[in-house]
Amino acid sequence: MAQKFRFGFLYLDELHHVNHFIPVAVALSQQHHVEILTFPDDHLYLKKGLKGLGADKVLVKELRTHPFRALTDSLKNRNRPRQGFWMKWNRHYLMNNFDALVFTSFIHHKALKFRGENKWPKLLKLPHGIPGRGYVYHNDIKDFDLMLIPGQFYFDQLKNRDLLAKTTKVTGYFKKEAVANIEPQQLFQNSNPTVLYNPHFTKGLSSWYDFGREILDFFKKHQEFNLIFAPHINLFNRRGGLDKNEVLEDLASYEHILVDLGSDASVDMVYLNNADIYLGDVSSQSFEFMMKPRPCIFINSHNAAYEGNPNYRFWRAGDVIEDVSQLNAALNSANETFERKYKAIQKELDSENIYRESGTTASQRAVSQIETYLKGES
User: Fold this and answer.
1) Buried b or exposed e, range 275-302, using 16+ CB within 10 angstroms
2) N or C, which end of the chain has less CB nearby within 10 Å?
3) Spatial separation of the C-alpha atoms in residues 320 and 236, rounded to whole Å
4) Tell me: the pLDDT tens digits for 16-26?
5) Are 161 and 147 members of one domain?
6) What is the pTM assigned to this prediction?
7) Does residue 40 have a cis bond before it (omega within 30 degrees)?
8) What's the whole-number average pLDDT of the chain?
9) What gap in Å lies between CA 94 and CA 92, rounded to an integer?
């Protein structure tokens, strides 16, 4: 009889983490016990995603945080419990019921502490995006027993920086499997080219804080382009501290402008798939856009010395502008410069970013690597 393991996937993060782990959870559940460990909530997007993948064997386990912490979270209007307190309150369940705990972010420190000198449970790391900026080169990677990554470029970078986990394997990109069955949508009632403006939330890097309003004003005037304004999901939540209603009211009357500040569609590649041109700054969503090569324009709002800098590697794939005054020319020449200059580069970057193999999916390869690893440790 095949050896069976118990897996706990920790989901204490924002909505955009879901599609990065559910394909692996579902694939593992075909032969193993799998629980998604989370906090009490409706979790509609998570459950919809699991249903779409036929995940009838995956258990969503809702665990409460410490009652006092729950009260203070409520008073502070927190949508999610503070991760460290939640993990501490539930440590006995986490540490005594699973062969492996699976993370998509660096919230593993409490689990590492609770495990101490024990060998189990193993700590596994999945990425929550295609590696882009410097934060993906995190020293805490070394804490994980097994890390699965999407492509060879990231593996080589980690190796060169002495940042590989104890075991690191290249398996491919899981998110594409999670969104594969989402129906295409017609977003505009015209055939004009559609631009996706996707600014990041990080101050000092995001184009929004310096140029965002000016960019939106540009598209209000230039109705020969459709605009999807779908920033990183954190730009207008509590991290960004910005006023959603002001933006929504300002753009509500423009039929050629669609605004999404954090719905399901903002994380499931609907807008990436519908856009003709990507306009952004430092988001790794640009790499997802390049999975089907198309023109990209990047905004250097912070005077970065980006050439040859691996933190700005995606900027190799399109024109880089320094000011909104250059946007009109960049848009009008986007198709020509893409074909002449950037199409081959995008294909090269995509091949480096994402490992593909005919006959198997990324999640199937992940299951194989996880099983091989755990059996070797048993």
Assistant:
1) bebbbbbbbbbbbbbbbebbbbbbbbbe
2) N
3) 25
4) 899 999 999 99
5) yes
6) 0.92
7) no
8) 92
9) 5
Listed residue (127, 83, 85) closest to 105, CA to CA: 127
179-216 per-residue burial string, b: 16 or more CB within 10 A, e: under 16: beeeeeeeeeeeeebbbbbbbbbbeebbbbbbbbeebb
* Residue 236 falls inside a structural domain: yes
Phi and psi torsions of 305, nearest 5°: -85, 85
**What's at 348, amino acid-wise?**
E
| Residue in this structure with the two tokens 């992940």, named with its chain if needed | 366
Task: Find the DSSP H helices in the chain.
Answer: 18-29, 44-52, 67-75, 83-89, 91-96, 109-115, 152-160, 175-178, 213-221, 244-251, 270-274, 285-289, 327-332, 334-337, 343-353, 362-377
311 and 370 both lie in a single domain? no
Query: Is residue 36 domain-shared with residue 125, that is, in the same domain?
Result: yes
Among 79, 76, 95, residue whose Cα is nearest residue 37:
95
Which letter, b or e, does each residue of 336-348 get, where b requires 16 or more Cβ atoms within 10 Å of its Cβ?
eebeeebbebbee
- Asked if 166 and 158 count as a contact pair (C-beta separation under 8 A), the reply is no
Residue 189 located in a structural domain: no
The residue range of the domain holding 284 is: 194-353
> How open is the CA angle 110-111-115, to the nearest 5 degrees?
120
What is the Cα–Cα distance from 364 to 4, expressed in whole angstroms? 16
- The amino acid sitting at 24 is V
Beta pairing partners, 229: 197, 259
Taking alpha carbons only, the member of 183, 191, 195 closest to residue 264 is 183
What value does the CA radius of gyration of the chain take, rounded to a whole number of Å? 21
Domain-located, residue 183: no
Helix (H) or strand (E) holding 34, with range, is strand 33-38
Alpha helix (H) residue ranges in 242-308: 244-251, 270-274, 285-289
Assess whether 277 and 261 both reside in one domain: yes
Do 145 and 167 meet the contact criterion of CB atoms below 8 Å apart? yes
User: Per-residue pLDDT tens for 301-348?
Assistant: 999 899 988 889 999 999 999 999 999 999 999 999 999 999 999 999
Angle between helices 362-377 and 18-29 (to 10 degrees): 60
